[in-house]
Amino acid sequence: MDQWLNESDGTLVVAISGTGGVGKSTLALRWLHGVRHRFPDGMLYADLGAYSSIEPADPEHILEAFLLALGIPASNMPTGLPQRQALFRSLTSGRAHTFLLDDAVSAAQARPLLPAHGNNVVVVTSRRRLSGLSLEGAAFLDLHPMSIKDSVQLLTKIVGADRLDRERNQAEELARLCEGMPIALSVVGARLSARPHRPVSREVGALRSGDRLATLTHDDSSVSAVFDLSYFALKRPSARAYRFCSLHPGRQFGLSAAAAAVGEEPDELEESLGELVDCNLIAEVSDRRYKFHSLLYAHARQQAERSDGPDEREAAVRRMAEWYLDRSAAADFTLRPTRRRVGSRFRTRPESPFPSHRDALRWLAEERHNLLAMVQTADEHGWDDVTWEFCEAMWGFFLHARHYDDWLQIHELGIPAAQRTGNLTAEARLRTQLIVALTHLRRFDDALGEGAVALSLAANANDEFTKAALLFELAGAVEGKGDLQAALRYLRQAEVLRERIGTERAAALCRRRIGEVLAKLGHHDEAVAILLEVAEYMSTTDRAEYARVLTRLGAIYVRTGRQDASTVLAEALGIARELGSPLYEAGVLAVLGDAAQQQGNIAEAQHHWAAAVEIYSRGGDPKAEELSARLSSLPSPRKSDS
């Protein structure tokens, strides 16, 4: 604000907005007191009472108080807003005042109280964004919660440095639990001040273990009461949106997910969410995407429990779960259009909202944590079909992103859910998916154990599709244990089954893996011939798989010293980046590092391997550790390599 003041050549108007309790009035007063020496004609203050227990202040009455303060006798007080406004502007013209218009309800309420052009400063605070003041040339400041450092400093001023220094880590945790809200920090600080022997750790424990909003109360100060004032001033549709959005399992959500919760179309809901943003009850983090502050999230849930019945709340959560599942299924269709699926979402192909492979991956990555939370929510509600179908719908994303912790976690919920429905095929397919994660995590015995159970289920269901998929995945587990010949047997059995069933792409995947195993056995010419055949097929049917085949070919070319390795790998890298698949990109980078090392270019090898390690590390892939070990074993690059 100092910069705005220094650059101003007339009356400066600053509009500070933020949620209740974030410290708008405190900031305004502190700043105005700090610059008061530049405004010798004094400071005028008005509480506009937007959230008081009575009606908001009438500008006409505020102007009467201002005029009296400016020396107009009561006997000469004009009547009516226009007359008082004209006199007020005349008296403030060319003078140097500061004004604080606190807790405004709207720009229309504040506008008549703005002084004439001159050396004046007006600060208007409001829980709403007073965009209408832009017509008056106002500067806008959205006040956000404080940082951990600033929060601890505020607590230090209230409680005392000696006390907090003894429990510094606990003080920082206290600041995190209050999430930078000055009103919450002040309540906690007041409680600690009133109990000089109470350890900070006990305050932390109280906030962690109980209802934080109920705990954040001291004497007549309550964080919940501050939030209530904003909530009860909302229009009914916005109040309902506030409550139902809080039923979302994560604090950040998109417009369409919120519309599913409320039971409206997104375009219909946008106005209500706009009011919540204007009132600083939620924040807009990007276009049509919103976020709750954690204390407001708890407050909104509290209001939902008070205002909406359990059946209505459960129906809202179910609508969200169905929306996320439908959208995940559409994304999976985009990623793997030919894959056989058994879930109800896949009985008819949905109209996809994702124009490309990259768009589908981007949405899945953005919603990753919400999807995981929604699977947990579905499980808690006993919605078994929804729970296991999420596992199937997220399969393509797992193959690209390899977030193994997520993968294991949702299958631990999905497999029992499929069991409870009695769907043998679904259970067998989910166990097959789990085998892939276990194999990549080097848990080969666990993978083989899952495979034995899944093979039995597939046999009981007379499901040759799943049996072929199981043989394909079990090949990876036995290969990991070093039995390459057994891997070849599994893969050839799977290939025969898939050719008999008529799943051409799946049979081609078997041939790709056969080529990889043959290369490990040293049969490079045979491996190359098979992989070239698969590459030709995949080049017109599956760009993602085509990139993987090129990567495998490139690795063999590097190993055998062929000069065309760089051309093949460059094409694979381009496709991986085009598709937006970091995992496939990491695979190419690892082979490019091998090629650079073979050519003696140590700096380039380090560059490629380090980039691959960064990608693999995000998902907890053991390949990150392997490549890191190879990186550390490299000699320092010569200057000529740099």
Automatic annotation (TrEMBL):
Transmembrane segments: none annotated. SUPFAM superfamilies: P-loop containing nucleoside triphosphate hydrolases (SSF52540), TPR-like (SSF48452). Residues 3-163 form the NB-ARC domain. This is NB-ARC domain-containing protein. It comes from Kibdelosporangium philippinense.
